[in-house]
Every structure is written in structure tokens, then in C-alpha cells.
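[step 3/7] fold_predict: job queued, chain A
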Amino acid sequence: MALIKWRDSFSVGVEKFDKEHLKLVELINDMYIIVRDKGDVTALSACIERLIEYTRFHFSSEEAAMEEANYPGLEEHKKLHAGLEEQAVGFFLRVKSEGEAVRTEFYHFLREWLVNHMVEEDKKYSEYLKPS
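[step 4/7] structure written:
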């Protein structure tokens, strides 16, 4: 398990969303540090709440831009976002009830999902949202 390091390959070519993605990476890395240092569940829960709140903001921002650009994959992308949010909230509830047993699993899930989503799914909208 390691911190996520931003790579150029993560960029979607839209500065606003690259900055938001970088913020998500930072929040996931904050969570990693708490897990690595065996921080208490209260600190982890607060970190996860910030991550979920920012993720909701980011998804809303992305979806609004996709709608404005008439991105043809918007509905499918919204489903992916809704699925992540549902899974993240589920993990959050599990962390609150099961504590340490779930922390590493949740971190791995977030790391894989974020990187794969940015590199595979978000790149699909970049040609529609790049400034001309």
C-alpha cells in the first residue's frame, strides 16, 4: 500500500477537473496516512466524510459540465458516479461499525477506483470539455 502520486497520465486535459482529481488524490492520501499510522476510527471517519463530501461536489461539477457540453456518455457516467458513491457510503458505514478490519480494504477500493475512473472513464469526456 502506498500513497498515490499524481502522474501526467491521470490528466483529463481539463484544468478544473484535473485540479479536482488532484484534490481527491490528496484526500485519499490523507486517508492512507491515517490507515498506515493506525489512527483511530474517529479520525478515519472524519477523513472519509470529507472525501465523500468532496466527491459529491466533484461529481456534480463534472456532470454539469458534461451536460452543458452535450456529452453523449453522460447518463452512463452518472451511473458510475452513483455506484461509487453508494459503495463509498457503504464502506464508511462498515468502517464505523467494524473499525480496523475494513480500513485497508476501503483504501484499496478507493485507490483502484479513482485511478481507473480517471484514466479510463474521465478521459472519454475530455475531448468534449477541452477548451477550443
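[step 5/7] annotate
The longest helix spans residues 100-129.
The CA atoms of residues 115 and 122 lie 10 Å apart.
exit 0
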